[in-house]
Amino acid sequence: MLKRLLGTLLSVVIITSFMSGCRQETSKDQIVLTLWSIATESDAFSNAYSKAIKDFEDANPGVKIVHETFENEAYKTKIKTAVTGNKLPDLFFTWGGGFSKPFVESGKVLAIDKYYTDEYKEQLSEAALTYTTYNGKIYGSTYTTPISALFYNKKIFDENGLKAPTTFDELVQVCDKLIQKGITPIGISAKDTWVLAMTHDAMTLKSAGSEKVKAALTKAGQSYDDPDFLESAKKFRQLVEMGAFYKGATGLSNDEASALFYSGKVAMYTTGSWMAGSIQTDAENPSDFDVVPFPLLGSNAKATDFMGGAVDSIMVSASTKDPDLAGKAAFELTRSISKYAYLDGAGLAVWKKDYDDSGVNPMTKKLADFAANATSFTLWFDTTMEAEDAGEYLTLLQELYVGEITPEEFVSSMKKNLE
């Protein structure tokens, strides 16, 4: 009996070892690349990423891309920690410009110039790679040209005899009338501070102008302690104090705040052009919505000056075991994401459009026209600034929103932050 039991156990061990060996052999035959992004299931780019990954795997038999997604705000911390701990995945989403500059300078990101082939150059201009180029070398590929704009519920506006505002004074008048009607004018998330920044950045651009904003944020001789920056902070507080924003915004995530807008519980929302795609999938009646450039706060900017630019990128870790495959994947994936995101209405394609786009929703096409006719693009504050400065900015902005600091204190603290 004991011999029979031992024999059975030995057989199980042999079979298990054999099966394990087969699995190991299979995994050895398959190349796995890990990709990190913020394209969660609720994100407008989720479908585009999924389709792009499938296309790449189909075109490269034996290659598997493991896609891990993270919420926007948490991801910013995760990616910085991964760089410091040398634990970056093969491929990772990031924002170009100042945000990724420390990553590149640390030597943790692979230069991918040699993978930028003539084929890709015909479809993606070098100018589009401006924010992923550092010291003359390309460190990432991009897929969209997002811009900030003011989305609004056209149905609510029509029912209340309102027109989309083109100036700040008009915006205040619209908010006043909506408040009198018992309608919350503007949706916002103060929990996800980047959403606060979407509104504040747009206001500051339309107050100070593109050149002054860029010079201040890049420490190029422009002090933040300036009347135009102060004016933006004051008017931001004016909107808070008049009750223009959703009252529970401090406890809302972006997804929750956006849902209120899609359901018609708030009338306006300032965010990136990707919202046009989300409206198509998340709003009951997408035709109720429209979009306009953010209102002007003075004469230093034009309606055609936009926050945004080709900054959303995929980069390659310098420690990847398959640099040639990962370098190729960075361009192949971004080309496909550019296509699918535009067709979904989630993004404004930065790669050449060589496909039928007749089915793209009118709002996305309108935003594409905004981008095509823009007189300037200014990257969002937390992307233009280096990581530490950006973190301090978002903290100060949250304090300004809840009234812990005054506009004057905000501007003064920003000046110190950028010295």
Automatic annotation (TrEMBL):
Transport listed as a keyword: yes
Keyword match Transport: yes
InterPro entries reported in the protein's UniProt record: Bact_solute-bd_prot1 (IPR050490), SBP (IPR006059)
Classification via Pfam families: SBP_bac_1 (PF01547)
Keyword vocabulary terms for this entry: Transport
Tree of life domain: Bacteria
Family listed: Belongs to the bacterial solute-binding protein 1 family.
Protein name: Extracellular solute-binding protein
